[in-house]
Design a protein that fits this description.
The chain has 201 residues and is mainly alpha-helical. The chain is built from nine helices and no strands. The protein folds into two domains: 52 residues, Arc Repressor Mutant, subunit A, CATH 1.10.10.60; 132 residues, Tetracycline Repressor, domain 2, CATH 1.10.357. InterPro entries: DNA-bd_HTH_TetR-type_CS, Homeodomain-like_sf, HTH-type_Tx_Regulator, HTH_TetR, Tet_transcr_reg_TetR-rel_C_sf.
């Protein structure tokens, strides 16, 4: 992803303005979609001067690209934190799925922002999921060498299967009115029952 189309703030007051623009855009993109949200609307709702917007972003796409990359980092951080005490691939999958579901519940706008990339720019959408896939394949390859995961499964396909499961079970979570820790554990355990029969030795 090209980072030259946006510029990070260097001062605390600039950071506050930058964060305000990001949060305003996040809400507008998730409510109206990428195409229907204009720069002028973002500027108006952020209560900033036009020049202030262009101080940080070249255009609307630059802002959206930054927001998407921020979500990718946040999701990776949430999963990394969730699996940090896990020793086996099985446990990493279980805790990783649970962490993602918790992230989706805590930030329901994430889905709309991420899937909007399909309409904002096909290459951006493609790059988002391919990056996750490449990292997943690297981790799964290690698990295959350790004898934890079956060696007759194409790992790229498996990575997309696992991402697909997380994505759509995430929708199951979002469609609920309430979510307790017990609910989260139960949903995660049911996912793992399926995975245990399919990918683990």
């Amino acid at each position: 992803m090209n980072q030259t189309n946006y510029r990070l703030p260097k001062r605390k007051d600039g950071q506050k303005t930058f964060d305000n623009i990001i949060e305003t855009a996040r809400k507008l993109f998730s409510k109206n979609g990428y195409q229907a949200t204009s720069i002028n609307e973002i500027i108006e709702k952020s209560r900033i001067a036009t020049g202030t917007f262009y101080l940080y972003f070249d255009d609307k796409f630059a802002l959206y690209s930054y927001l998407l990359s921020k979500y990718r980092r946040s999701i990776r951080k949430a999963i990394s934190e969730g699996i940090k005490h896990a020793d086996t691939r099985y446990e990493k999958e279980r805790l990783g799925i649970k962490a993602f579901l918790k992230f989706a519940w805590d930030d329901p706008l994430a889905y709309r922002i991420i899937w909007e990339s399909m309409f904002a720019d096909k290459e951006l959408f493609k790059e988002y999921y391919q990056t996750f896939s490449h990292d997943y394949v690297r981790q799964l390859s290690h698990a295959v060498r350790n004898g934890e995961v079956k060696d007759d499964i194409d790992l790229e396909t498996l990575s997309y299967i696992l991402m697909g499961i997380s994505n759509f079970v995430g929708l199951q979570v979002l469609f609920r009115d309430t979510l307790t820790d017990a609910d989260l554990e139960n949903i995660t355990d049911n996912v793992m029952k399926v995975l245990k029969s399919g990918m683990f030795r």
